[in-house]
Amino acid sequence: MELSSSDVAGTRVVKVIDTRIDAAVAIQFKDAMRSETEGGPERVVLDLSDVAFIDSSGLGAVVAAKKLLNGTHVLELAGLTPVVAKVFKLTRMDSVFAIHADVAAAVPALAS
Amino acid sequence: MIEVETGEQAISIHFLSDTFEVRSSLQALMDDMEGRDYLPEERGTVELVLAEVLNNVAEHAYEERGDGKIELDIDYISDGISIQLQDFGKPMPNGQTPLGMPANLDVEVGDLPEGGFGWFLIGELAKDLMYERKGEANHLTFRMTLGES
Fold first, then answer.
1. pLDDT, tens only, B6-24
2. Minimal Cα distance from A57: which residue of B?
3. pLDDT of residue A112
4. Which end of chain B lies in a sparser environment, N or C, as judged by fewer CB atoms within 10 Å?
5. Tens digits of per-residue pLDDT, B87-105?
6. Number of Cβ pairs closer than 8 Å across A and B?
7. pLDDT at A104 over 90
8. Out of A63, A83, A96, whose CB is closest to B48?
9. How far is CA A88 from CA A58, A97, B9, B82, in A?
10. Among partner residues B48, B105, B114, which is closest to A55 by beta-carbon distance?
């Protein structure tokens, strides 16, 4: 499970490099999110624009990351591809997360 | 090793209940569907439902053993696909597929559910889901409508 992160205008943007968050990587994802955000800015935007596929285990891992960060960070999502968006919508998890069209929409400083 | 056999309007994949064999099998199916001009979103929806069903077989019917036989047979039909799945693991509890219920999200962040979405997603996206125990085998059949969303 590969993630990369950078700080933009006080927001930590964490990008998922893999194209899938599924049962095979769900556990690694939560641990990777912990290390990418520890000691960093409060606001975290998870960039999912390269993730073409997520299953219920992957969804569970994203929720687990939100719970893990709760109290020290706020986790928001950006760049949901069609299948990922479908999973969030069907499970109504789209009502639990702030979701942005892309990272530029989430962090306007990036757009300029 | 996964075994793939393709027909004019069908594909059959035999594989083991190992996470990576499941992944390769789904990939083989996605490649086949791409060759048959299904759109990325249609393929993604099929992959999602099958991933849920197959993870369930691997985790529960075969209890994470990784060496259980799974046989997936798919027919391409006029308005979508018809799926037949067979495994030789433990039967479904109570002889039926779990009733997928929407999760209660009206809770504190710390109490949000991290699981239990699988059968709900299957129920939302699959049609005519039927389960039967035949001898030592589990048979699951369903359809998915594609082409319109």
1. 999 999 999 999 988 998 9
2. B115
3. 61
4. N
5. 999 999 989 998 888 889 9
6. 76
7. yes
8. A83
9. 11, 9, 32, 25
10. B48
Closest residue of chain B to A24, computed from CA coordinates: B19
**pLDDT tens track for B15-54:** 999 988 998 999 999 999 999 999 999 999 999 999 999 9
How many CB atoms within 10 Å of residue A91?
A: 23
Q: Both tokens of residue B12?
A: 């059959």
Chain A residues near residue B124 by CB distance under 8 angstroms: 90
Are A66 and B109 within 8 A, CB to CB? Answer: yes
Hey, what domains does chain B have and what are their CATH numbers? 3-145 (3.30.565.10)
Say whether B114 and A63 touch across the interface (CB within 8 A).
yes
Least Cα distance to A16 among A27, A26, A5 occurs for A5
Q: Where are the alpha helices (DSSP H) in A1-112?
A: 26-37, 56-69, 82-90, 103-106, 108-111
Question: ipTM of this predicted complex?
Answer: 0.90
- Integer Cα distance of B116 and B11 in angstroms: 30
> Does B51 sit within 8 Å of A22, measured CB to CB?
yes
Task: Tell me which chain B residues have a C-beta less than 8 angstroms from the C-beta of A55.
Answer: 48, 51-52, 55, 118
Instruction: Find chain B residues with C-beta within 8 A of A82's C-beta.
Output: 40-41, 44
Domains of chain A, first to last? 3-111 (3.30.750.24)
B108-130 tens-digit pLDDT: 999 999 998 999 999 999 999 99
